[in-house]
Write a structure and sequence with these properties.
With 309 residues, the protein is α/β, with parallel strands linked by helices. It has helices at residues 2-17, 36-43, 53-60, 168-175, 189-194, 197-217, 224-245, 259-294, and strands at 32-33, 65-67, 73-75, 88-90, 110-112, 132-134, 154-156, 181-182, 185-186. 40% of the residues lie in helices and 8% in strands. It is found in: Cell projection, Cilium.
Amino acid sequence: MADNQSGHKIQENDARSGSFDSPFEEKVEKPVRLNLQHIVKRHLPTEASDWSHDEILKALNKIRRVRLDRENISDIDNLELLSTEVTHLYLHCNKITKIENLECLPHLQILILSDNQISDIDGIAYLTKLVFFDISKNRIEETHAEKMPKSLVIVSFSGNPCTECPSHRFSLIQWLPTLKHLDGIEISREEMNQAGRLESCMDEESDEEDNENSENDEQNYEDPTISHLSKNVNEARSLDIQQNIGYKQLPKIQKNIHDLATDMLMRSQSRLEDRTSEYRKHIQEMTNIRILSKIKPVPHLSKPSDSLD
């Protein structure tokens, strides 16, 4: 009986001291560096384990959307094994502490790094084709807009301490000329005006119209075809400006903006590029007609009369 009581006391003391091992306690795995095994496991079939190294690399070079979320990754590495044509990279829900080693993906357009442990946004400024950047639910205390590429259209810092800073939203709207959505909220015309973007856009459009009117005044001859095509030129140039300052329209996006938002954005971009290509064809046609209109016809030379000696 005394032995049983002493045994219970030992167990109680162990539990209090924390040395007692619970059978339900989960073992925490140590975070790992992103490696080839991660990529192969998520993107190639199971039989790839029997492939040669060259066959694996060939298959990896065909991948354009890379999904490596929830892989307990602490460091971004080994992405140079992929094609430089990769456009989407999903690394959310890991344990990443730093954005690094992305220079091997120059065509990256979508980057998802939400739910990590990142404290700074260094490492993305050179991604000049990036349009969608989700860095929500991390540990970023300062925004540092100047570290971000100006190509961005949709950005989310939601769940970071930096969003509490009064200048957070204004600094990003001012620095990123194509930004349309920030932290799940569409940017209003008033915000654009306060940041100086709206006035700048209107000035550019006004300059383009003045230049076009000046060119039309200098023309000595203008037929109906040229007049019709001139309207297309104005629309084309206006469309180019819209493309430089951002998309004309974007879908309303909820706070959960991963796959659905990216697909809609890419489709919108594709349609915009098609329209731009059509307008540029009209520009070329109009230019050709103007050139032809300036060429004076060669005067008709009559043949010498046979009656003259």
